[in-house]
């Protein structure tokens, strides 16, 4: 039996699995550091069961996932956030440290148990400090029977993308909160499914990440590029997710057109691209057909956009069977659109529309509208990111527990301020009266089942003529993206252009430089849900907040989620 | 006013302080990483209030110390152990993670409050994972009025010694628990009061740690050697403590005889040495007279003994005022006795006797005798250290809480095994039937006020012809050292030679290669007290256990010490 026959059998077996009934799917995990060389440079990497990336979870729509996590790190806590899973009725298993639960202490075992309600391409990752950037992430694939999908394919692959640093996350974190500020800098490499190529072992004079470097490393068992084996003349589904710490990524499958069919696990009106922007926190499902020259392999490539690229292209191998995986393409590595071609980025974002008949249209009006201005500011001499001039700091009591058990002092009881956005020049660095922000941890409280609009307004950073991309992610929800715009949002004129017919439904939306986005969601999931920029350094520097809703409907919390901060007050000795 | 006048005024002021009443002494600490260059090589270092070493605590005998600790590390827990302080009635403030308390989570504030009952030279340090080796330590000086001391002096200094690695403790910890085992290796440098000299900034061809390297670095504000200013013709008290991670240290004050007057804060019969062995976890108070050539300065030096020295001498400057501190001695760096001259080490240890009239003699008989054989073993393919073939693993529930609130499953309820030591050949690697140990967390329970003897028996490691020094430290107690011996302890013959008249009283005792030591203590301090080898890698590899006593007298525990592991069961929602 040849390799491709094996592959066919595996795929058939997967389809058989998919026909089975909703099940309880169990995983038993141990988290610890390992020594790994994702890009041929050895460093300490956070791992699950000694694997990097952490193991891919496979489940079917409606299954219950039971993940038993034992923390074997000597002194660090951990949590796992199941990115894109709504945790309906189980908000305490959302895995956001100090929002939904206490960190899992070293030596402790914690069991997540939740339903995966909707098929799609998801992922999970550490959500404490910058542990995601430390390597704590993996894919979470929720399937349904193929015949229920509105498209057909012969096989599938899944890849998770990230950017990668050689400095430890401890050093990165410290630099971000130090005076003077020490930025993490551009990543050393880009990883596709945990593999990149920085160090060219055994070859002198070969540039890190260059084609020759990849060729050189292609047989190195520690860091050979990831391989996507395909049979010629077939259609494949490729599941792509980005857990990048900093970078906006652009994915290219050399010579192959990508038909985008899902975004963040939600159906979109299919559209074709040659290159795909994937912002951190987003996933895409694309179809491609293996109709190219079958005697060679092709590049799967990822480049940085949105920041001036100094990191070599991340590369994997699209292997046309029966070519060997080590048959490295001799073609140049794919080139993405110019890093600062924001118009191209916006245009692609606007191509994403909900698939008719598969997604509901949003309610026509919000019950409440919140404006969030995200700016770079100073707090006590530190560079921070702030929302309406409040830079978020996590306090050591889970917000969910504080709400449920009415524990005072766990977060700032003052509601977040409404920002006089009309006075604010988004094209200039913060003026004197807005330059200094304060630290805080206010929580937005929404009435259950109310329709909420969030206007996220981007602006200039502290540096003149500079504005950054921020991929905003909401826990516990998908939201409709009603509109994108440039400059300052105009509440009088802009709503007239909102898409209320087929806006895309997602959990993460990129807010472009100097731009705004308006999202709408229904506050129908009792719990406390972080809303934050998915860029690790930005969130670590305060770019986030918490949305709470249906407080009176929050279920009793499992004691395993408690024990830290002011929840110690719940002890009865 | 000259420098020496300032010094005299400071010393007078200190004496005035010492005459004051017992007081409440408050400290407000924030723990976080800093970037520091203790030996001129930059790395992340654990710090209190951005200081390394952490601040020196000054208090008077009988004072109450209140130390409010805020953990600002993003993802790591911390605790502080007050080494040598007995914590009578406050066993929950002993600061041993998972024995006396839960780790202080990131963002939490924890307040230690305890009495320092006895004057002496103590210290404090992190007691979670290998955070002490990561730099989390400082001095704790408890004074009494000078006229109450049985010796006189004109001024005093305090230094804390350690060995230093450039690898992070994360990497060190991972290597120690990996297959294959990766040892931490010999330290890169030795630090006196947080200063060493590895990197010779600006001088080509100068060996790390060499005399020229020190000269070169002597004006570098980041890593200039520590300076001990003295006036000629005076007598000084020097407080010396070692928090070394691995190394047995030997201290020399060039050209000056040291008169040892205290060990671990307890009075000893004064004796004179030219060099002083200080094992990790021990402190000594020595007197010296500044009667040497006053036109020059002298070396304060520390060398490794007990392991073949590959680390350069650690150096500080004994500054004879008014010479400038930068007047580096041109004399060779002091040389310590041969690293493997165990006889010299034992002989010096045997010079230490309690000062007549200042320490009580021990009870003549024990109520219970426990034999502990410390060996190097294999557990599931990992190299470990074990006590009676059980390698200690910390479980995530504080033993003290489990005992107080009768929480089952927190530790192994089976008592530790009595080991058939008569059958064991301490001069050979573990035989087949003892080579493999098991992991566990048994607790020794002693009857309140009973007299306990512990026979600590050393043996050959897994490597033929190799046995190591282990400094054993007991929390919550000082103990009498009744005797040292070589080879296998003979319960029939050896007790006849016990010193029951003036044995030294200490909290840490070195057990020499292939040797044994017998200690006696009274189990009169209700609580749970770690008894462990003070070498960080050894303890991390399982060389420790817990002694519990007077369980029924353990006071109610502050809720701030709880919340982790099975103490979550104490939640009443």
From TrEMBL, chains A, B:
InterPro entries: Cu-oxidase-like_N (IPR011707), Cu-oxidase_2nd (IPR001117), Cu-oxidase_C (IPR011706), Cu-oxidase_fam (IPR045087), Cu_oxidase_CS (IPR033138), Cu_oxidase_Cu_BS (IPR002355), Cupredoxin (IPR008972), CuRO_3_AAO (IPR034267). Keywords: Copper, Disulfide bond, Metal-binding, Oxidoreductase, Secreted, Signal. It holds the Pfam family Cu-oxidase_3. It catalyses: 4 L-ascorbate + O2 = 4 monodehydro-L-ascorbate radical + 2 H2O. Gene3D superfamilies: Cupredoxins - blue copper proteins. It is found in: Secreted. The keyword Kinase does not apply. One of its GO terms (molecular function) is oxidoreductase activity. One of its GO terms (cellular component) is extracellular region. Residues 31-143, 157-321, 431-550 form the Plastocyanin-like domain. Its cofactor is Cu cation. Residues 1-22 form the signal peptide. The keyword Secreted applies. Its EC number is 1.10.3.3. Dimer. Belongs to the multicopper oxidase family. This is L-ascorbate oxidase. It comes from Physcomitrium patens (Spreading-leaved earth moss). The lineage of its organism: Eukaryota, Viridiplantae, Streptophyta, Embryophyta, Bryophyta. The gene is LOC112279727.
């Amino acid at each position: 039996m040849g390799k491709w026959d094996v592959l066919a059998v595996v795929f058939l077996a997967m389809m058989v699995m998919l026909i089975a009934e909703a099940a309880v799917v169990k995983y038993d995990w141990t988290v610890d550091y390992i020594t790994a060389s994702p890009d041929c440079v050895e460093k300490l990497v956070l791992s699950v069961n000694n694997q990097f990336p952490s193991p891919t979870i496979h489940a079917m729509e409606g299954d219950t996932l039971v993940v038993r996590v034992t923390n074997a790190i000597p002194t660090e806590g951990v949590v796992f956030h199941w990115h894109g899973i709504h945790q309906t009725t189980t908000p305490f298993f959302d895995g956001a440290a100090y929002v939904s639960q206490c960190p899992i202490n070293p030596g402790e075992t914690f069991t997540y148990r939740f339903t995966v309600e909707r098929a799609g391409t998801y992922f999970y990752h550490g959500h404490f400090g910058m542990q995601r950037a430390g390597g704590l992430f993996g894919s979470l694939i929720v399937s349904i029977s193929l015949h229920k999908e509105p498209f057909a394919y012969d096989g599938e692959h899944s890849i998770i993308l990230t950017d990668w640093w050689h400095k430890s996350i401890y050093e990165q974190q410290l630099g971000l909160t130090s005076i003077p500020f020490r930025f993490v800098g551009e990543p050393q490499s880009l990883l596709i499914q945990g593999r990149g190529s920085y160090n060219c072992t055994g070859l002198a004079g070969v540039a890190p990440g260059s084609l020759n470097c990849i060729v050189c490393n292609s047989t190195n068992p520690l860091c050979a590029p990831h391989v996507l084996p395909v049979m010629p003349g077939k259609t494949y589904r490729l599941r792509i997710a980005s857990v990048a710490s900093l970078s906006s990524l652009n994915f290219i499958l050399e010579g192959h057109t990508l038909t985008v069919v899902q975004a963040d696990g939600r159906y979109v009106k299919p559209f074709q691209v040659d290159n795909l922007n994937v912002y951190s926190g987003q996933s895409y499902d694309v179809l491609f057909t293996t109709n190219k020259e079958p005697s060679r392999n092709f590049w799967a490539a990822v480049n940085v956009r949105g920041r001036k690229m100094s990191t070599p292209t991340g590369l994997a191998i699209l292997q046309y069977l029966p070519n060997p995986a080590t048959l490295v393409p001799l073609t140049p590595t794919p080139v993405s659109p110019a890093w600062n071609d924001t118009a191209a980025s916006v245009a692609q974002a606007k191509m994403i529309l909900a698939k008719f008949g598969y997604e509901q249209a949003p309610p026509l009006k919000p019950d409440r509208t919140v404006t969030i201005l995200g700016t770079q500011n100073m707090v006590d001499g530190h560079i921070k990111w702030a929302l309406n001039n409040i830079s978020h700091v996590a306090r050591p009591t889970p917000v969910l527990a504080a709400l449920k058990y009415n524990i005072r002092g766990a977060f700032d009881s003052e509601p977040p301020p409404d920002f006089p956005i009309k006075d604010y020049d988004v094209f200039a660095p913060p003026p004197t009266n807005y330059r200094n922000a304060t630290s805080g941890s206010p929580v937005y409280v929404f009435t259950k089942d109310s329709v909420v609009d969030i206007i996220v307004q981007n602006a200039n950073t502290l540096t003149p003529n500079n504005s950054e991309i921020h991929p905003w992610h909401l826990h516990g929800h998908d939201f409709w993206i009603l509109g994108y715009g440039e400059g300052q949002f105009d509440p009088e004129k802009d709503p007239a252009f909102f898409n209320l017919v087929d806006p895309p439904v997602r959990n993460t939306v990129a807010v472009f430089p100097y731009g705004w986005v308006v999202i709408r969601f229904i506050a129908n999931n009792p719990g406390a849900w972080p809303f934050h920029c998915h860029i690790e350094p930005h969130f670590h520097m305060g770019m986030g907040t918490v949305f709470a809703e249906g407080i009176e409907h929050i279920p009793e919390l499992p004691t395993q989620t408690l024990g830290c901060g002011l929840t110690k007050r719940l002890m009865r000795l």
